[in-house]
Every structure is written in C-alpha cells, then in structure tokens.
Amino acid sequence: MAVQEEVKPERTQVEGEPSTIDDVRAAPDELITTDGQVHDVAPVGAASPSQLGTRRFVYAAYFAGAIAIAFLASKLIDFGWLKAQTYKPAIGEPSDEVVMPVSAIVGGGTAVYYWTHTRARELADEVATEMSKVTWPSRAEVTNGTFVVIVTTVLSTVFFALMDKFWGFVTNLVYGGS
After folding, report:
1. Which residues have a Cβ under 8 Å from the Cβ of 53 and sit 6 or more positions away?
2. Taking 50 as the threshold, does the pLDDT of residue 129 lie above it?
3. Which range, 1-10, 96-105, 151-160, is most confident?
4. Would you say 81 and 106 are in contact if contact means Cβ atoms under 8 Å apart?
5. What's the pLDDT tens digit per position in 7-58?
6. Looking at the domain assignment, is residue 161 inside a domain?
7. Is residue 2 assigned to a domain?
8. Domain check: are 124 and 68 in the same one?
9. Angle 88-68-130 from CA coordinates, rounded to 5°
10. Is the pLDDT of residue 71 over 60?
11. Distance from C-alpha of 33 to C-alpha of 46, rounded to nearest angstrom
12. Residue 123 and residue 23: Cα distance in Å, rounded?
C-alpha cells in the first residue's frame, strides 16, 4: 500500500503582501517561481523535513541500518582476521585502512540492495506511517501507572510472604518439623 506524501499547501495571498518579483526582493526563506509569484513552500521534488512527512523516518532507518551493518561487518572482518592470524601468524593486525572501507561498502551495498526492492521500502513506509499515529502517554499517566505497579508489587510481596510464614507454621504443626 503506497503512502501519499504529505505536502504543505501553498499559502493564499494576504492583502498588503507583495505578490510579484517587482514588488519584493525575495527573502532567504521565500521562493520566487517563474510565474512571478512569491511562495513560501519549496517546489515539488525539494526535500524539506516538513514535506517528507513520515518518509524522513524511513530514510533515517535505512541510514541507521547501513551504519549498523557496516559496524557488524567491521567486527566480522576483525574476527575473521584474528582467526586467520592463528593459522598464519605472519599476516599481522588488520589495518583500519582496509577494514573500515570494506565495512562501509558492505553496509552501503546492503542499504542500496534493500532500497531497490520496493516491497521492503513499502513495508518501511507503512511502519513509519503507523508509528506516526502512536500517541504517547502524558507524564501524569506514566507517574500514576508507575505508582500503581509499585504499590501492587509491594502488597503482593507482603501477602505472599505472610502466606508463606502461615503455611510454614501450619506445616510444622502437622508434620512436627523443627
């Protein structure tokens, strides 16, 4: 299921506001298009964080995944190098000039591989969209919930400790233990 990108709608003209190139020199945060109108939104295709919507989380996840895979690849290469060292001690220590670029290539290649497969990208888009719908509890709700858990745990502990002592006493009476 494809997700429609969220795009900030264009602003309507306000009275007294400059609307053509002749009326205004563009401020750095404004954009003047070829039709001479002043718009405060970037053109379609430009990637500002507000226009990317949930897709920015997908991009961040791919980037983080590539870094994680590169990290794991560097550890795997180091481990393999050290294992190879036991068989041929003349090889020596792996140098970072070799391990890090190879790890970066492995991580980047994996990220590109999954990016080119549209199903993986669609799933990542869907996850990001669903995660954007999550509502987190307020501080008061978390505090109240934590208080309930702590009180319930303490009361349960006291109850089971008393029951253990009681049934230990009864068992000692019945079986005549020490």
Report:
1. 5, 6, 132
2. yes
3. 151-160
4. no
5. 445 555 555 555 554 444 444 444 445 555 555 555 555 555 566 677 777 8
6. yes
7. no
8. yes
9. 155
10. yes
11. 14
12. 47
CA distance 178 to 176: 7
Question: Could you tell me the pTM of the whole model?
Answer: 0.32
What's the domain range around 80? Answer: 54-132
Does 86 lie in the same domain as 143?
Answer: no
* SS3 sequence of the chain: CCCCCCCCCCCCCCCCCCCCCCCCCCCCCCEECCCCCEECCCCECECCHHHHCCHHHHHHHHHHHHHHHHHHHHHHHHHHHHHHHHHCCCCCCCCHHHHHHHHHHHHHHHHHHHHHCHHHHHHHHHHHHHHHCCCCCCHHHHHHHHHHHHHHHHHHHHHHHHHHHHHHHHHHHHHCCC
- What backbone phi and psi angles, to 5 degrees, belong to 38? -95, 125
The reply to whether 96 and 121 lie within a common domain is yes
Neighbour tally for 127: CB within 10 Å: 14
Q: How many CB atoms lie within 10 A of CB 115?
A: 16
CA distances for 175 relative to 134, 140, 171, angstroms: 58, 52, 6
Q: Are residues 60 and 127 both part of a single domain?
A: yes
Per the domain annotation, does 27 fall within a domain? no
Structure tokens at 83: 């294992």
